[in-house]
Write a structure and sequence with these properties.
CATH class of the largest domain: Mainly Alpha
Shape: globular
Strand order of the largest sheet: 1-2-3
Helix content: 40-55%
Strand content: under 5%
CATH architecture of the largest domain: Orthogonal Bundle
CATH topology of the largest domain: hpI Integrase, Chain A
Order of helices and strands: HHHHHHHEEEHHHHHH
Number of helices: 13
Number of strands: 3
Distance between the termini: 72 Å
């Protein structure tokens, strides 16, 4: 019956990662409870969530994901209304952002042209790592200084910006790269894990003490665009956020205005 779950997720345009995650958590739940879908009760759901929280010490974020996966299947698809429990809210942490100098140091620390271009591309466009992995050469419009993310999160297409210096470097890079993918791996597109390792390794070499991931580049892109005076709705479009509230987190991260303030200690 879990085939119904996969079919519904596909029809609603969920990403492959979400489909895989929702399927996984529902399978784990059914294996734990040892009942069929039709036999599941609200108590079964509560017992499983309590087990994850107190026996497995699962994080609040994991609990939220499991709850969402079970609710989608049992309440939305099977209409059982059994996932009604309240769980702790995930802490709202501000994203990690690199300063412009740290971005420069990161680019400078890149050993290879491909590494340097991956870092620059992530920062220039604010693209998600999964989108970068699947980005194809024919989705570039170098003469216009733009590119297109096809079927991004939520199955949406969107425009991305390319800096002038990046366009020139990509043109040179493409003379050697014969793959359909902008950044190919050994067999097909490069993997997200590979990019994560590249970013982490280069950040260590650059002496950056923050936890740097590909998503850190996306956060930095959005924050620096905001600090440069870009309208937040335009940033929302470039990031591919469906909700403006998601983009507004960067108004809390930006420190440009706060840095202009004077400490009262300096007035003593």
């Amino acid at each position: 019956m879990l085939e119904n779950l996969i079919t519904e997720l596909k029809l609603r345009g969920f990403s492959k990662e979400t489909i895989k995650s929702y399927f996984y958590h529902n399978v784990k739940f059914l294996h734990f409870i040892k009942k069929t879908e039709n036999e599941i009760s609200e108590t079964d759901v509560k017992n499983y969530i309590a087990y994850l929280m107190h026996e497995k010490n699962s994080s609040v974020r994991t609990i939220a994901l499991v709850k969402a996966a079970l609710k989608f299947y049992f309440d939305e698809i099977l209409k059982k209304n059994v996932v009604t429990l309240k769980t702790p809210k995930a802490p709202k942490k501000l994203p990690t952002v690199l300063s412009k100098q740290e971005i420069k140091n990161l680019i400078k620390a890149a050993n290879y042209l491909k590494t340097k271009l991956i870092i620059k591309f992530l920062y220039s466009t604010g693209i998600r790592v999964s989108e970068l992995c699947n980005f194809k050469v024919n989705e570039l419009e170098l003469s216009e200084g733009i590119g297109w993310v096809r079927s991004g999160k939520g199955a949406k297409d969107r425009l991305i910006l390319l800096s002038e210096c990046l366009r020139t470097e990509i043109e040179e890079y493409l003379k050697e790269n014969k793959s359909i993918y902008l950044f190919p791996g050994h067999n097909g597109p490069i993997s997200p894990r590979n990019i994560q390792e590249i970013i982490a390794r280069t950040a260590r070499k650059a002496g950056i003490m923050k936890h740097v991931t590909p998503h850190t580049m996306r956060h930095s892109f959005a924050t620096h665009m905001l600090e440069n005076g870009t309208d937040i709705r335009k940033i929302q479009e470039l990031l591919g956020h469906s909700n403006l509230q998601t983009t507004q987190i960067y108004t809390q991260v930006s420190t440009s205005e706060l840095k202009k303030l004077r400490s009262p200690l300096d007035d003593l």
